[in-house]
Amino acid sequence: MRLSRYFLPVLKEDPKEAQIVSHRYMLRAGMIKQQSAGIYSWLPLGLRVLNRIQQIVNEEQIRAGHVPVLMPTLQSADLWRESGRYDAYGPEMLRIKDRHDREMLYGPTNEEMITDMFRAHVSSYKSLPLTLYQIQWKFRDEMRPRFGVMRGREFLMKDGYNFDLTKEDALHAYNRHMVSYLRTYERMGLTAIPMRADSGPIGGEDTHEFLVLAQTGESEVFYDARVTELKLGDRSVDYDNREEVKAVCDEFTTLYARTDETHDEGIFAEVPEEHRRVARGIEVGQIFYFGTKYSEAMGATVVSPEGKQIPVEMGSHGIGVSRLIGAIIEASHDDKGIIWPEGVTPFPVGIVNLKQGDAATDAACDALYKGLAAKGLEALYDDRDERAGAKFATMDLIGLPWRITVGPRGLANGVVEVTSRRTGLSEEMSAEAAIAKIAAIYENI
RNA sequence: CGGAGCGUAGCGCAGCCUGGUAGCGCACCUGCUUCGGGAGCAGGGGGUCGGAGGUUCGAAUCCUCUCGCUCCGACCA
Fold it and tell me: So what's the pLDDT on residue A202?
């Protein structure tokens, strides 16, 4: 993408309403525009990141054997009366009436609707296990939206629901989600720690939240420092192998890690003092096992092998897709701007043309741009007629992990400059070598 | 929802107390110079001062109502 033809409205000054760094940088980097309290438009750069995150979430869900669907944002109140949550949910739920005075709501979550979908089409244990998920906009009418997309009212969320015959099967689904989530967050360059949590309005017995450590986090967290060193890495996990999946979950949940809701000073005191940590975290996902709470209330049953009608065992699982962008920025930035992990960056690399209009420099940038494209890498090429300082400042702000700088001085020696946004270190090399280097970096991402 | 604020050019702000021709910086446009870390000079465009009512010869400024937004707290993905 040529910057001269793009829509990237960066701001030089800090918008006054943005208090935390991710909100500030998202506004300054031209990623989002607030439309009303807690409701945002996504501008091209922000949309690219949002799409990248959705892509990773989709890939990991499908890898785990889960099946994508898409449900409407607007739901009928009747469905929610069946589960009893229409009255239980409170003013956080946005209620709407259509022209026929029918009561509707903008879904804050989808347990009822998915259960309705399930009961309409599944009637035998032979169809189980089944996990359906979607990535869809939700609305929760927060009393006080703040921190940009980290706590908006409208937000994009991946919500998944498992249907199983037995509790053991449902707990395997729970574990499978935990592993798939760990992999999902790692691909985004995040360390997200599963922590024992409270079930809140979803209800249920077993639940973990995934927390990204950040000073601006909304939750106080208590953990054993060794938990942050655990990595899934390249290991392949067979999602159908219960023991293997369970072993990974045990590995990641044995060390102490809890939010303030479930924190226990007594148990925490048993963690060796040098490993004990108290910090803050941003919640980027949560998994629940809740058994037959919704299936019983809504008559979602299957015929068992013994020929009996039994309510299905369920759980639900969420990833805060839009809020993840805020969390990633909170975890990865410096005083000049964002530093995107390669996995989620809007563009893999930026090209800075230091002398726009100079025939040799323009031609070199052009060749570089095409060479990268031939490797499947779409560069953001700053071809504006701006001074070097302005171009560097823009690149630093929007945080592309790699920058290739092309100027007459380097071209005279046959080199361009490749700079890492994260380390700030530069290397001079031929344009061909630069293309090869960037291509190698992104080969496995 | 309790408390505290703010709405003046795209963004950040001054002007309001003490009523009298709407300003500054950045951004934008034109020209010249400059050109490897947010350039300099000169010129220029852009506002029903959030909205409605009222007081007054006269309201951005005073009064009433209203809408929107932000911050602290409680609550929450």
Answer: 57
Strands A39-42 and A74-76: unpaired
Verify if strand B has an atom below 7 Å from the CB of A35. no
Beta strands in A249-342 (DSSP E): 257-259, 276-291, 301-303, 309-311, 313-320, 333-334, 337-338
ipTM of this complex prediction, to 2 decimal places: 0.94
In 3D space, the residue among A169, A117, A139 whose CA is nearest the CA of residue A291 turns out to be: A169
In A 104-133, which Cβ lie closer than 7 Å to strand B? none
Q: For residues A39 and A32, give the distance between their C-alpha atoms in angstroms, rounded to a whole number.
A: 10
What is A349-441's CATH number? 3.40.50.800
Q: Does the pLDDT at position A203 exceed 70? A: no
The Å distance, CA of A13 to C1' of B54, is 39
Both tokens of residue A344? 């989620």
Residues 143-172 of A with CB under 7 A from strand B: 143-147, 149-153, 155, 157
Q: How confident is residue A197, by pLDDT bands cut at 50, 70 and 90?
A: confident
Closest by CA position to A227, among listed A197, A194, A199: A194
CA quadruple A294, A297, A301, A305: dihedral, nearest 10: 90
User: Residue A112 pLDDT more than 70?
Assistant: yes
The Cα A90–Cα A319 span in angstroms is 23
Angstrom distance (rounded) from CA A168 to CA A166: 5
Q: Which CATH superfamily is domain A21-338 in?
A: Bira Bifunctional Protein; Domain 2 (3.30.930.10)
Measured CA to CA, the distance from residue A354 to residue A357 in angstroms comes to 10
CA A363 / C1′ B25 distance in Å: 38
> What confidence tens digit (pLDDT) does each residue in A52-94 have?
999 999 999 999 999 999 999 999 999 999 988 898 888 889 9
Q: Where are the domains of chain A?
A: 21-338, 349-441
| CA–C1' nearest nucleotide, residue A428 | B36
User: What are the start-end ranges of the H helices in A204-300?
Assistant: 242-253, 265-268, 293-298
Closest nucleotide over all strands to A337 (CA to C1'): B38
pLDDT per position as a tens digit, A378-427: 999 999 999 999 999 999 999 999 999 999 999 999 999 999 999 999 99
HSE, side-chain direction, 13 A CA sphere, residue A332: 26
